[in-house]
Design goal:
Blueprint lengths: L1 H10 L5 H8 L4 H7 L4 H7 L8 E5 L4 H8 L5 E6 L5 H14 L3 E5 L7 H7 L8 E3 L4 H4 L8 H10 L5 E3 L8 H9 L6 E3 L5 E2 L2 E2 L4 E2 L10 E2 H10 L6 E3 L7 H8 L8 E3 L8 H10 L5 E3 L8 H10 L5 E3 L11 H4 L7 E3 L9 H8 L10 E3 L8 H10 L6 E3 L8 H10 L5 E3 L8 H5 L2 H12 L5 E5 L2 E5 L15 H9 L13 E3 L8 H7 L7 E3 L8 H10 L5 E3 L8 H7 L8 E3 L8 H10 L5 E3 L8 H10 L5 E3 L11
Parallel strand pairs: 1-2, 2-3, 3-4, 4-5, 5-6, 6-11, 7-10, 11-12, 12-13, 13-14, 14-15, 15-16, 16-17, 17-18, 18-21, 21-22, 22-23, 23-24, 24-25, 25-26
Antiparallel strand pairs: 8-9, 19-20
Helix pairs in contact: 2-4, 5-6, 6-7, 12-13, 13-14, 16-17, 17-18, 22-23, 23-24, 24-25, 25-26
Length: 652
Amino acid sequence: MDDSDGEDMAEAPALPVEIIVYILSFLHASDRKEASLVCRSWYYASQDLCFQNVTFSFPASASSLELIRGLGRKKCCSLIISQLDGFSISRSLLVEVGVCLGSKLESLALPGSSITEASLLALLPCLTSLRRLDLRGLDSLFMSGAFLSREEHRQQVRSALCGLEELDLSDLRYLSDLTFNRLTGCTPHLHRLSLAGCHIAFEFDPYRGCPVGSVEGSSALLSLRNLRRLLMEQKSTLMALDLSRTSITPESLRTVAQVKDLVLQELILHGCKELTDYSMEVLVKHQPNLHKLDISGCTELTSRSVEAVARGLKSLRHLSLSRNWRITEKGIADVLSLSSLRSLYLSECLHISGTEMVKGLQVPNAPRAQLETLNLKSCTYIRDLGVFSLAQLLGDTLRELDLTSCVNVTDLSVCAIATYLQKLVVLRLGWCKEVTDWGLLGMVQKAECELSNEMGDKDLKFTRTFGNMGFFKPPRLAFEERPKLVTQNDLEQFRRQAGASLLALSRLQELDLSACSKLTDSSITQVVRYPDLHCLSLSMLSEITDASLASVAWHCRGLVSLTLSQCPGIRDHGVAQAAPYLHRLQHLSLSCCNNITDRSLFSLMQHCKRLKTLDISMCKNISVTAVDLLQSQLPFLENIHYKFIGGADPSL
C-alpha cells in the first residue's frame, strides 16, 4: 500500500511554473507570501515579474533593517517608510535603502517623517531607477532654504533622478522659488506634479509688499511666475497637476491653462474656493483633453461650470463635483451624455435628486456614460425611485456606489441594488436609517404588505390642522417606526426563495452599514457572507450581538478592516469565536464596546498577528496592563487608541 502510494507520487508530473503563476495571481499579496513557503517551485513562481509591483509599508525601527536587506533579493519594489527622524536608527535605515535597493527602488514615500537634508542627499544619488518620489509634509528639508544649494549635490541628484516621473510636494510650508527650482531642475521629465496645500503666492508677495513677479527667485515663497516657468519647460511631458487647497485665483488658473502647448490630462483643484464659473469656461476651452477633473469644494461654482464641462471635455473619464453646494440638477444630464465618463462624485451636492441623471441616461439612440463609480453621499433628495431607475440603467457597468447619509433611501432601494447591481464591488449605505432587515433579506414587499394590513383603518383620526379637516393616517412618530421583527419562519422562507437579497452581491469587497440602526442579527448572519470582502463597517448597530460577529468571521475570512464601534452587544465570547478566522485582519475598531474585557485582547494576541491599528477607546473593562502586553506581542501594531479605558472619566 505504502509502496504504491510512493510510486504514484513519483510519477505525478510537476505543474509548469506558468500555471502556478496563474493560480497565484488570484491571491492577495499576503497570501502569495504564505504560498511561497510551500516549496521551491512555488517560491520561484511567487517571484515572477508580474508580482514585482508590490509596495511595502512599515514604520522606521531597528527591525526594519532586516526587512530592507531581504527586499534586496527582489528585482524591483516600492517603499513607504513612516516616522523617520534625525536619529541614528533612521539614518541607518536610509543608508540600507541606498545600499540594498538603490537600483531597484521604483517608488519612495516618507510620510510623517522629519529627516535631515544630509540624510536625504546621501540617499537620492543611489536611487537610479526611481520613478515616484513623495516628499509631502517634509518641512524639515526646506525650512533652512539650503536644500540642494551646492552644485555638486545637484549634479549627483540630477544624474539619479533624470527618469523621475511623479513628484509630490504637497503640504510643504516652507517651499520657495529657490528650493523648488533646485529640486525640479533635477527632474526634467516629470509627468505628475502635486503642490496641494502649498503656500503659493498667486497675486501679491506679502514679504516684499509688491505684486508677484516683481522680484525673481524668491527665497521666502513659491510664486505663480515660477510655477508657470516650470510648466513651460516641461510642457512636453507634464500630464497631471494638483493645486488642491491653494489660494489660486481665476486669473491665475487662466494663466496656467493658457500655457502654450501644455496638454494636461489630469487637473486637481479640490478646495480652491476662489474659482468662478468664468475661470472654468476658460480652463475647458484651453485644456479640452482633460481625462480627470476634480473641482470638489470649489464653493463659488454653479451649474454653469457643469454645463461648460459637458460641452468642452468630450474625453472626460473622472469628474468630482463634491461639496459644491450651488450646483443643481441643471447640466447633470449633459454630463452623463459623455460616453467616456467612468466615475462621477456628487457627494454633499444638496440639490441633486437624481431626476436629471436618469434623463441623461435614458436618451434614446444617444451616447451615455458607462459609469463604474457613483458617489451620492449626503444627497438628501435622493429617494427610492431615483435609486431604482439608476440601478436599472447602470446595472452592467457600476462597480462602486456610495449612498451614505441618503436618509430617504429605504428597503426598496436595497432590493433594487441587489436585483440590478450584482457586479458591485463597493457598497456604502451608512446612516441610511430606514434600511431594515427586510431590505437586506429581499423580503420588502411582504413586510410592507403586512405592515399596511396591520395598520388598516384602526389609526384613522379626525384632526384639524390649519383649516384643513379630514380623515387621514397620522405621520409616524419616532417611537412608532420600529420595524416588524423577522421571525424564524421568515428566515426559513428567505432560505427557500430566489429573491433579491443583498446576498446576490457576491463580488463585494467593501460594505458599510454603519448606523443603520434597524438592522439585527437576523439579516447580518444570513446576508453578510462574502468571501472576497476586505472592509466591513457595522458600527453603531445596537441590535447585533456575538452571533453576527461569529457569522461574519466564518464567512468573510478575507477581512482586512472591521469596524464594530458602539456595538454594545459585542462581548468577549464573540471576539473569541471570530478571532481564529480573521488571520488577515489589520484594522479593528471596538471603541465604546463596553462588554469586552482583557479576554478579547488575549484572543487578538493569539490569532490576529497582522493587526496594525486597534481602537479600544472608552472600553471601560479593559486594563492598561493588557494593552501593554498586546503591544509587546503584535509585531506589526503601529497605532492603538485606548483613551479612557478602564473606567476613566472622559470629562476630566
